[in-house]
Amino acid sequence: MKVAVQNLPLPSKYAKIIEWGKLITITGSAQLIIQVIGFLSAIIVIRLLPTKEYALYTLANTMLGTMILLADGGVSTGVMSQGGKIWMDREKLGLVIATGLDLRKKLAIGSLLVAVPILLYLLLHHGASWLMASLITLSLIPAFFMSLSGTLLEVAPKLKQDIAPLQKIQVGTNVLRLILVGLTIFSFPWAYIAVLASGLPQIWANLQLRKSSYKYARFDQPADPLITKEILSFVKKILPGAIYYCASGQITIWLISIFGSTTAVAQVGALGRLVMVLGLFNVLFSTLISPRFARLANDKRILLGNYIKIQIVLFALMALIITIVWLFPAPILWILGPAYANLKNEMVLNIAGSCVALIAGSSFSLYTHRGWAIKPIILIPLSIAAIAVSASLIDISTLHGILLLNIYVAGFEAIMHVLFSLIMINKIKVKTHGITE
Q: Where are the transmembrane segments (predicted)?
């Protein structure tokens, strides 16, 4: 006799596994497409730009990242931290995002005033004419301003874990970027054209993000003075560290651009494109892990358990990536073209340094999304001391030496951020049945 089987609710453990499986599948598959398209765009630029032009392109892209980081100054992290507390309320979440957008506009001016003279100096130092240096600098402006609002407009969908629309927008943006790069770089192999073609699609992306974000946050409101004060208090804690990371996060490029040759700058930039595979993990982390960690209850056991699981998984994945690159360097370097075929050891060192930096960055992201920050008076002197000691032991005028320095610095930062995360979590009291122990 056949028995009718009724649809019973799954145990919470299996429901969570299914939920995470769906999220990772949606995000992972979309990010795989995004990374492949982005990688194709990068390879087109590497292969078609002359070595000197690619060196200038590398400097411009590095400075763009620095400008965005300076203009953010911890605002996006502060918005995520504040938003994680009231993410169910559309009005309040919108007010937090509107305040963040207002703050970023003000910080953007200061970022431009600091970054533009430095970029012009470096471009001229590596042989660009005043006209070319000016065109490259101007080509950064659209990408700079669009990226500033783009990351804040993603906060609401990330907190709500409405991931699919974000992935569609990112796929569309990268397709547009590939088309623009493909149409322009063949006929105009100049650095400023490549920079402009890469940045313009972000305008379309922001228009789509506004529509997606507005469903969960009504951000067409004036900035709130009280929220401004709260975010700024967090920014004051994190800004000195953010300024430091502008330098240390791209220390490879900065040092090689000052002490090395133009060819070495191009080589570092080309190797950096191979690290794009790690972008998949970065996006998965910032989309799925950090927002959920920000939402967790302030309970020591819950936070510590989740934190340790995250770090174990990250460490295993990074070890696997380094092993694959070490075993198969030649086929991977073939992608970059013959000009970079002799960089086998350097490629392994570059990937290793990037993997360690990703582990450091994950801890930094997790604890800042909880509203925690290392005191700059501790962070910066220790980090500078680590760089100074490492640099005194290595020949930083060579590409090999610069990449070794990158590993040492990233390793120090990883240890520091992991220890700080554990210390902060350990300070939280355990809750049992609603009672704090």
A: 23-48, 54-75, 107-124, 130-153, 174-197, 270-291, 312-336, 348-367, 379-399, 405-425
Q: Where are the alpha helices (DSSP H) in 300-343?
A: 300-327, 329-334
The whole-angstrom separation of Cα 174 and Cα 342 is 30
**CB neighbour list of residue 388: distance below 8 Å, 6 or more residues apart:** none
H, E, C per residue of 50-72: CHHHHHHHHHHHHHHHHHHHHHH
Rounded-to-integer distance, Cα 396 and Cα 81, Å: 38
Token pair for 286: 């910032």
Model confidence pLDDT, tens digit, residues 359-411: 888 888 888 878 787 777 777 788 778 778 877 888 777 778 888 888 888 88
Q: How far is CA 389 from the centre of its chain?
A: 27
3-state secondary structure 9-34: CCCHHHHHHHHHHHHHHHHHHHHHHH
> b/e string for 281-298 if b means 16 or more Cβ within 10 A?
bebebbbbbbbbbbeeee
Q: Please report, as a single letter, which amino acid is at residue 227.
A: I
Cα–Cα dist 198/181, whole Å: 7
Q: What is the model's pTM?
A: 0.60
Cα gap 46→406, rounded to integer Å: 23
- 306-344 pLDDT, tens per residue? 889 888 988 898 899 889 888 888 887 887 777 777 888
Structure tokens at 350: 């570059």
